[in-house]
Amino acid sequence: MTISPNISMSGSASLLASTLQSSSAALLLPGTQCRLHPQVSLDNLTSFRVGGPAEWYVTPRSWEDVQASVSWAGDRGLPLTVLGAGSNLLVSDRGIPGLTVATRYLRQVLFDEDLGQVTVGAGEPLPRLAWKAAKRGWRGLEWAVGIPGTVGGAVTMNAGAHRDCTADILVSALVLELDGNLAQVSPADLDYSYRSSALQGGDRLVLQATFQLQPGSTRAEVMAATNRNLVQRKSSQPYHLPSCGSVFRNPDQRAAGWLIEQAGLKGHQIGGAQVAHRHANFILNCGNAKAQDIFDLIHHVQAEVEGRWSLSLKPEVRLLGEFS
Ligand SMILES: Cc1cc2nc3c(=O)[nH]c(=O)nc-3n(C[C@H](O)[C@H](O)[C@H](O)COP(=O)(O)OP(=O)(O)OC[C@H]3O[C@@H](n4cnc5c(N)ncnc54)[C@H](O)[C@@H]3O)c2cc1C
After folding, report:
1. Which CATH class for the 238-320 domain?
2. What is the pLDDT of residues 229-262, one digit of tens each?
3. Is the CB of 122 under 6 A from ligand 1?
4. Model confidence over 105-159: pLDDT tens digits?
5. For 133, which of 138, 156, 181, 317 could close a Cys bridge (C-beta 3.0–4.6 Å)?
6. Which atom belonging to ligand 1 lies closest to the Cα atom of 85?
């Protein structure tokens, strides 16, 4: 790849890059704190713990640095991928081309006592936010405690649990469009439905979100409700091995897990990937899975369920890169 002359090489960045398992030196984007790392392995940055390298990888710490990174990719015609906590992603063993922008350092949390709202950076982990709200005695996020994603991922995926979801509490989100413009959007702009939003088109990056919560309860009440949700999830879902949570969206008629279980697929294994015994809508990486094993198992489950129920299961997990 040809690198533009306005990008300079950095020795210390190279050291940092090696700790990120990069094979060659990182580049400093002038006028920013951004280091662009080549060939960064994504397996440790996704909850499935599989996947090849990002061609380029950056972790901006400010909106300006996000903007600069996005325009760096745009100037070179490189595809852009946004990475939150990687808890709903299956990254190909061959990796992903272009620039991967990780939001993990875009964190700030501001509670507005007068409005009962919280404004949060896209990289803030959802469970941490749920506990922060609970400790103040603010209701509205008790459902989110077991979802191991970021705020940006939740706004994009319309993450939800226990019959509540992100769209129900979102007041507005600040997004960066690929042409560099910032825009404030409301839920009405985002075409929300079950685990779906217009943001999944990949043409906007969520920088921060404001949620409406309900102050006024005691810390003990909200902490107890939040903890109950966590305990209930951990007893019914397999959190002990790497996964992406539910692999398939629930069709209207039946829960995907029930359909998969009735098709006799619990425990079915391809390579290191296995349909979980505890919850059939989970696929687990039993230690040595390749992304291709998981991909093949997804297809096998879809074919078996289609054959048995004439229903097509749609993946909730986002597939990135090429699979065979
Ligand atoms: C054990 C386990 C349990 C789970 N339980 C649930 C559950 O109960 N309910 C549920 O809804 N989900 C659940 N999930 C799935 C996952 O946690 C959610 O989908 C979560 O919202 C994904 O957030 P993330 O930050 O990890 O996003 P990622 O997985 O990193 O990305 C998901 C998608 O969002 C995009 N994206 C991420 N951040 C941004 C951003 N800032 N701007 C624009 N696009 C962005 C990505 O490009 C990608 O397309 C579970 C996952 C696991 C591993």
Report:
1. alpha beta
2. 999 999 989 999 999 999 999 998 899 999 999 9
3. yes
4. 999 999 999 999 999 999 999 999 999 999 999 999 999 999 999 999 999 999 9
5. 138
6. 26
Whether the CB of 84 sits within 6 Å of ligand 1: yes
Closest atom of ligand 1 to 195 CA is: 11
The CATH class, in words, for 109-235 is alpha beta
Can you give the length of the chain in residues? 324
Scanning the chain, the segments in alpha helix (DSSP H) are 11-19, 63-75, 126-136, 151-157, 166-169, 219-236, 256-262, 291-309
Q: Are 140 and 132 in contact (CB under 8 A)?
A: no
Residue 80's alpha-carbon distances to 163, 280, 296, 315, in angstroms, are: 32, 33, 26, 21
Q: Which of 63, 157, 244, 282 to mutate to test the pocket of ligand 1 (most atoms within 8 A of CB)?
A: 157
Pocket lining: 285 vs ligand 1, CB cutoff 6 Å = no
Q: 165 CA to middle of ligand 1, Å?
A: 13
Asked whether the domain spanning 109-235 has the same topology as the one spanning 8-102, the reply is: no
* Single-letter amino acid code for the residue at 31: G
Domain ranges within the chain, ordered by starting residue: 8-102, 109-235, 238-320
The ligand 1 atom nearest the CA atom of 239: 1
Choosing among 1.20.1250.20, 3.30.43.10, 1.20.1740.10, 3.50.50.60, the CATH entry for 8-102 is 3.30.43.10
> Is residue 142 flagged as an active site residue?
no
Of the candidates 35, 195, 204, 233, the residue annotated as catalytic is: 195
246 a catalytic residue: yes
Largest separation between any pair of C-alpha atoms in the chain: 59
This prediction's pTM: 0.92
219 catalytically annotated: no
